[in-house]
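sorry to bug you again but im stuck and you know this stuff better than me. what follows is a protein written twice so to speak, once as letters and once as structure tokens for the fold. id like you to explain what the token line says about the fold, in plain words if possible. anything you notice is useful, everything is just below.
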Amino acid sequence: MAEQLRLMAVHAHPDDESSKGAATMARYVAEGAQVLVVTCTGGERGSVLNPKLDRPDVWENIAEIRRAEMDAARAILGVEQAWLGFVDSGLPEGDPLPPLPDGCFALEPLEEAAGPLVRLMREFRPHVVTTYDEDGGYPHPDHIMCNRVSVAAFEAAGDPARYPGVGGEPWQPLKLYYCMSFTRARILALHEGMLAIGRESPYQEWMDRWEERPDKGDRITTRVDCADYFPVRDDALRAHATQVDPDGFWFQVPMEVQRQAWPTEDFELVRSFVDSPKPESDLFAGIREGLGHS
């Protein structure tokens, strides 16, 4: 009997899992894989980005509300979910930027912060781990720290000399990926898809200012076809009601345009202990055969 495939997706805040790689996770769940979302912080210092919920009672209970939103999104995606328990760092603004608050995730010593994730890796025993690139996908201090913690835990989890007291037998995940969501080619395809149907593109400003944004599209190694699960992704994202305006930017491109213009979610393979020739179309490429999957 084939061993169940296991995927771990490490994210900074509740809602990140639904905007980065969610359709891929939903596809693998539907195919029988076990998927665990790890959420580093509770999002306590996040903004309320849905104007309909920008109310004092929401702000007063934001931590509890965001946990409930995560529960709803988890159920929609069909994944398991675990909290690492770190405190949101917030997104500093101003010139000069203010210091980060004491005790926040981004200021945790890396060796200590990686320990809880090492424990989860040893308990869940993922074959594949996904997270953000070294810039965090965008320069939020928690996203950057999420990358650092994920890489450190990936490299330590299989070493019996590292973190001997956290529990669980050593386990080496076989592949580590970075999510590559906002590449120029993808945004251009969606932009041109909207223009082709005679609609105003929500990405016009992005295209006008693209030179200000780094493009990492040439780093993509793996494109997972998951267009059938875009509606699940969007439902999960809407479950984070404080973070997403259901009438706003993220939902302006019709589903048929998205599916035709860019039917994949894209990743960069950055660590691998298996032979999986690139380009890939499967995060488990090079792993399935060894576990008895055809």
The first strand starts at residue 6 and ends at 11. The mean pLDDT is 95. DSSP finds ten helices and seven strands in the chain.
